[in-house]
């Protein structure tokens, strides 16, 4: 079931209708059943893996609450179990094509050996949430162990199941205990988020991503420098509007159920430094990595050497964190290279900052702020090349772009689709409020909403809504 | 147990000297340090280690956030509430 489809819209409406008729305790069970039904509609295998992960993780957490002895062992085994599932599917996808081609080379029919295992959609997201739950249980952050059904809903909640946001248990689970208040204010917030998300996805991201030649990053030597540079910029922006559109849509849908999901983006196109960027881009993943890898590692180095300027403290935590982020996106070497580059950028920035007090570092004045934003985004775009281009294609990519030219072949007109997306970002960024549109006069809001729906419907007649890119991770 | 003023003073001295590297900078008790761009992720860990070694209080990694640690007041409150436990 695609999130941008009439079937999904009807599914959400049907669940909402029953949801509002039920008392709070039954509402959670309805959401759990609806979430598994939604997952089942994608593949009948996926809910089985999710259910096994849920029950085993919850049993480990139960031991962490009940037992005084062997807590460390239960904690380590619980984490190892979840990591094993994540690595199994991630590494499996990496090695399977090679294994299959080898087996086929020997004349064995690989299909019969059961190696064609599907990667469960959303596994990368719910496993991180399961690990967060174990960490919280180890520290006994919640007063008591949540019920199995509540924990199951935390992992399976259908608006966020396929691509996040990666919710913290301490933020999501308390909402399941409380009474859901869905008043006019919450409905207009949810509706606005949903509309912004649909514009970002259908009006901006889909036409842009559809215009990108399928093999451009695999065979960069077949294109001109201008085509490659322009496509790189367009792809990253398309990815941003696709994923931020997804996040707004699911946050909007969840708002109708009275459950708030965390924002994933805070206008990353206006980042003034690399570390600032990672506090604005895919925030729920960045914060998970920060809390569970960067902070513990930095703490360990600082306690050992008591010197924040020691090279190990500066380089190892950000590089390790970002390489793991690369692995989370995919096990192909180009993702790991991308993570390494991003980690080195953050560490290098820290090294530069050591010379200057943070008091004098804050950009003052429009020109300096604009320069910081421009420099940060250009550098990040260039260092994001390995995210898209496989390792074998990086050398031909660089060779091609160094022979600057070929402007006639690039389809610059596609950039026009960015205008509504950039306009929304600009308005939100200026007021630091994603729902600033609700402050507009009622007449303008009605006109803009009607116009936006007209454009959205018109665009769906031209472009078939594509699957969200991050559902593939 | 130390008073809130004493905790704040120690924290303020540490942040001025070791994080901001500007002893003349006056930090207001409710000045946003993280959201104001004065403290980044590297520095917040320095503060967490300082708190741990000076006051014997461990602030969990998941709580080193802008919501919990943005101002001098918030950090001091956090230290005191952990000490009371």
Radius of gyration of chain A: 23 Å
**Main β-sheet of chain A: number of strands, strand sense, barrel status?**
none
- Oligomer state equals heterodimer
General shape of chain B: globular
Q: What are the segments of chain A in which pLDDT stays under 50 over at least 5 consecutive residues?
A: 108-116
Count of discrete alpha- or pi-helical segments spanning 4 or more residues of chain B: 4
Secondary-structure-derived class of chain A:
mainly alpha
How many domain units of chain B?
Answer: 1
- Most extensive chain contact? A-B, 29 and 25 residues
Briefly note the CATH topology name of chain B: Non-ribosomal Peptide Synthetase Peptidyl Carrier Protein, Chain A
Radius of gyration of chain B: 12 Å
Instruction: Please provide the count of β strands of chain B.
Output: 0
Which band does the percent of strand residues of chain B land in?
A: under 5%
Q: What is the name of the CATH class of chain B?
A: Mainly Alpha
* Through-space gap between termini of chain B: 12 Å
String of helices and strands of chain A: HHHHHHHHHHHHHHHHHHHH
Helix-strand string of chain B: HHHH
Strand residues, percent of chain A = under 5%
What do the pLDDT scores of chain B average to? Answer: 89
Could you characterize the architecture of this molecule?
The complex is a heterodimer of chains A (473) and B (85). With 473 residues, chain A is mostly helical. Chain A contains 20 helices and no strands. The two termini of chain A are 17 Å apart. Chain B has 85 residues and is mainly alpha-helical. Chain B has a single domain, classed as Non-ribosomal Peptide Synthetase Peptidyl Carrier Protein, Chain A (Orthogonal Bundle). Chain B has 4 helices and no strands. Chain B has helices at 4-19, 41-55, 66-69, 72-84. The longest helix of chain B is centred in the N-terminal third of the chain and has 16 residues, at 4-19. The chains are: A mainly alpha (473), B mainly alpha (85). At the A-B interface, helix 5, helix 12 and helix 15 of A face helix 2 of B.
């Amino acid at each position: 079931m695609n999130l941008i489809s009439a079937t999904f819209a009807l599914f959400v409406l049907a669940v909402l209708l029953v949801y509002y008729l039920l008392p709070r305790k039954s509402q959670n069970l309805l959401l759990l059943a609806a979430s598994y039904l939604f997952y089942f509609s994608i593949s009948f295998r996926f809910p089985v893996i999710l259910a096994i992960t849920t029950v085993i993780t919850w049993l480990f957490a139960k031991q962490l609450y009940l037992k005084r002895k062997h807590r460390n062992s239960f904690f380590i085994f619980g984490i190892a179990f979840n990591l094993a599932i994540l690595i199994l599917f991630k590494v499996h996808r990496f090695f399977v094509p090679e294994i299959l081609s080898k087996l086929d080379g020997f004349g064995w029919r690989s299909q019969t050996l059961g190696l064609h295992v599907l990667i469960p959609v959303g596994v990368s997201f719910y496993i991180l949430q399961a690990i967060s739950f174990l960490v919280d249980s180890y520290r006994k952050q919640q007063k008591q162990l949540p019920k199995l059904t509540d924990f199951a809903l935390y992992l399976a909640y259908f608006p966020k199941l396929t691509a996040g946001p990666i919710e913290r248990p301490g933020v999501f689970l308390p909402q399941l205990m409380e009474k859901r208040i869905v008043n006019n204010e919450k409905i207009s917030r949810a509706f606005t988020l949903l509309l912004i998300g649909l514009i970002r996805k259908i009006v901006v991201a889909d036409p842009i991503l559809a215009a990108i030649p399928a093999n451009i990053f695999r065979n960069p030597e077949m294109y001109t420098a201008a085509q490659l540079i322009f496509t790189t910029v367009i792809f990253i922006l398309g990815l941003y509007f696709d994923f931020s559109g997804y996040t707004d849509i699911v946050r909007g849908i969840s708002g109708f159920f009275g459950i708030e999901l965390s924002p994933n983006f805070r206008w990353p196109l206006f980042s003034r430094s690399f570390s600032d960027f990672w506090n604005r881009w895919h925030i729920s993943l960045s914060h998970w990595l920060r809390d569970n890898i960067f902070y513990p590692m930095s703490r360990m180095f600082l306690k050992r050497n008591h010197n924040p300027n020691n090279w190990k403290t500066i380089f190892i935590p950000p590089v390790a964190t970002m390489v793991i982020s690369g692995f989370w996106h995919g096990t192909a070497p180009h993702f790991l290279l991308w993570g390494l580059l991003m980690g080195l950028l953050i560490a290098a920035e820290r090294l530069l900052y050591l010379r200057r007090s943070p008091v004098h570092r804050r950009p003052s004045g429009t020109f300096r702020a604009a320069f910081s934003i421009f420099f940060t985004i250009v550098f990040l775009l260039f260092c994001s090349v390995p995210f898209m281009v496989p390792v074998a294609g990086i050398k031909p990519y660089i060779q091609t772009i160094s022979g600057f030219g070929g402007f006639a072949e690039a389809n610059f007109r596609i950039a026009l689709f960015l205008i509504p997306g950039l306009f929304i970002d600009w308005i939100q960024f200026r007021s630091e409020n994603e729902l600033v549109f609700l402050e507009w006069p009622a007449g303008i809001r009605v006109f803009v909403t009607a116009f936006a729906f007209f454009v959205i419907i018109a665009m769906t007649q031209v472009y078939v809504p594509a699957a969200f890119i991050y559902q593939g991770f | 147990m130390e008073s809130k003023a004493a905790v704040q003073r120690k924290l303020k001295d540490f942040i001025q000297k070791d994080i901001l590297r500007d002893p003349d900078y006056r930090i207001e008790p409710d000045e946003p340090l993280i959201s104001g761009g004065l403290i980044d992720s590297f520095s917040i860990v320095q503060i967490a280690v300082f708190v741990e070694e000076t006051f014997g209080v461990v602030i969990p990694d998941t709580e080193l956030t802008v919501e919990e640690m943005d101002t001098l007041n918030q950090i001091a409150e956090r230290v005191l509430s952990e000490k009371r436990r």
